[in-house]
């Protein structure tokens, strides 16, 4: 699956020590960096951070369209 900047995604994040637990995190694609995708995701305090993740850990997210 290919991604492009601005795509809305869900990152299937597996925290360290999570014992196989996967946490979905909504984010946005910033750019493609070689074999990885740079995404922007929010922290719990609301700050935005960038993470480099493998594309197999991302799913495309459909934005809900409000009338």
Structure write-up:
The protein is mainly beta. The chain has one domain (8-60). Helix content is 0%, strand content 49%. It has strands at 8-13, 23-33, 36-42, 48-53, 58-60. It has a five-stranded antiparallel sheet with strand order 4-3-2-1-5, with no helix packed on it. The radius of gyration is 12 Å and the shape is globular. It starts with 7 loop residues before the first strand and ends in a 7-residue tail after the last strand.
Range of strand content: over 45%
Fraction of residues in helix:
under 10%
Q: What number is the mean pLDDT?
A: 91
Low-confidence stretches: none
Order of strands across the main sheet? 4-3-2-1-5
Q: What's the Cα radius of gyration?
A: 12 Å
Please work out how many helical segments DSSP would assign: 0
Kindly report how far apart the N and C termini lie.
Answer: 30 Å
Q: Class by helix and strand content?
A: mainly beta
Q: How many distinct beta strands? A: 5
Q: Element order, helices and strands?
A: EEEEE
Largest sheet: 5 strands, antiparallel
| Shape descriptor | globular
Question: How many separate domains?
Answer: 1
């Amino acid at each position: 699956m290919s991604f492009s900047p601005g795509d809305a995604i869900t990152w299937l994040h597996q925290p360290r020590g999570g014992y196989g637990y996967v946490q979905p995190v909504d984010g946005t694609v910033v750019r493609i960096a070689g074999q990885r995708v740079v995404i922007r995701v929010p922290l719990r305090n609301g700050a935005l951070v960038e993470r480099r993740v493998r594309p197999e850990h991302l799913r495309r997210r459909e934005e809900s369209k409000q009338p």
